[in-house]
Every structure is written in structure tokens, then in C-alpha cells.
Description:
Blueprint: H1 4-14, H2 17-31, E1 38-42, E2 59-64, H3 67-77, E3 82-84, E4 97-102, H4 112-122, E5 123-133, H5 135-138, H6 144-149, H7 161-169, E6 173-182, H8 190-198, H9 210-221, E7 234-242
Parallel strand pairs: 1-2, 1-4, 2-3, 4-5
Antiparallel strand pairs: 5-7, 6-7
Helix pairs in contact: 1-3, 8-9
Amino acid sequence: MLDYDAEAAQYDATRGGVPCAEAAARAVLGLVPAHACTLLDIGCGTGIVTARLVRPGLRVLGADAAYGMARKAADRLGPGSVVLADVRRLPLPTASVDAVSAVWLLHLVRDAAHVLAEAARVLRPGGVFVTTVDKDDAHDVGCDIDAVLAPYRTAHAFDRTELIEAYGAEHGLTAVGDARFVGHGQGRSPLRTADALRKGQYASRITVRGAAAEDLATALSALPDPESPRPDPEYRLLALRKEVGGA
């Protein structure tokens, strides 16, 4: 697992930078109701997406558990716009915001059910929770890297659509729409993938560890054109609305 405090300085460049952030923000805003006045972006990271969730009449806040990330986000969003917080225990009143977004978060969270519960708590009736789902599947673009990794991939992703919909239903959240966006600049090269595997950054989706992981990284490095990125992933967003009278 990444140290997100240490990663903050280089995070944006390794996640597609501005083009990817702009694509994500456009897709999120397309699922946020026109009447929404407040949006909370949880797991906001450096705020590169959060700062682009701009629409007349919409106030945007951010929350992240990593100090390094939250500090960079605060620089982008301005004083009072970012809170350092565990997204499973948000320091906000019940029914206080119109929308909650979570981009590239739930695939990292073993107890995603608690995140859904907390999002439902802070949402007003009629508000929406917009989140990426099936993130790891998005990186399977049918290339040679995917063929090498396929035998070692786990099927137990934390952000599977059916899981997120089930967690949401327990707290009065109903799926009402979805959207997709391209992860510009996030196409992986064999060498980049091998390096991530050696650093344990695929812990949530690849089952091998230790010497076996090193063997897999070596196999990736031996692929043709090892420095050339493969196609960019396409991510999926799911919108769940808090029903009137929901939990």
C-alpha cells in the first residue's frame, strides 16, 4: 500500500495529471443534480479533481486522511475548504450536503460498507453519492500486460458494482445512473507495472508475493517495448441517490 503522505508530491503526475482530472471532474458533475448547492469530495487526495468540480452555485469541500494530500488540496481549494478526516467518520452534521463524490477511493477500502454508510448519513434526502467502481477491471484493456497478470488476479475487488449497490441499499441509496471517462495518461507500460508490483502497489488485486512477485515482475519486464504505455483505461462512475425517508 502506498504511503500517501510521501506520495503527495508526485501523485498528480503519476495519475494522468490535468487531462485525467478534467475528464473525471466533467463526468462527476454530469451525475450531480442541477439543484445541488454543496458537494463533498472524500478521499480527495491532492485536490486535482476536486478543484475542477466547478459549477455556478456549487460549493465544493474536500476530505482526506493523509496530511500530505490534504495540505496540497487545501492549497488548491483555499482556506476552510479541506478537512483532514477519516472518510468513515466525517466531521459533518447529518444531512448537511447535497452530493458526495469519491474518485479512485473505494478500491482501496476493505470496509467500503462503512464509507457508504457515512456518505448516506451526511447526504440530504435527494442527494447523490457518485463514486468510481470496478477500478481494477478498468485497467484490463486486453493488452499483453493483462495476459501476464490474468492468472494472478483476485476477483475480490472492494469496489465491485454489485457490492457498492448492496451497501448503498442498506442505507437508502439507490443506483440512478452512471458515466465513464478516460484515464488520460494512465496507460501502463510493462516496466511501470513491474515496478509497481515490486513495491506492493498491486496488493489489492494481485495474489502473488515475495519471490513469486519478483518472477512476475521479471516476466513483465521481458515483454516487447517494455517502456511503451499500453492503452489508457476507461473508468466507470456510479451515482446512488438518497431517497426521501432513507437512512
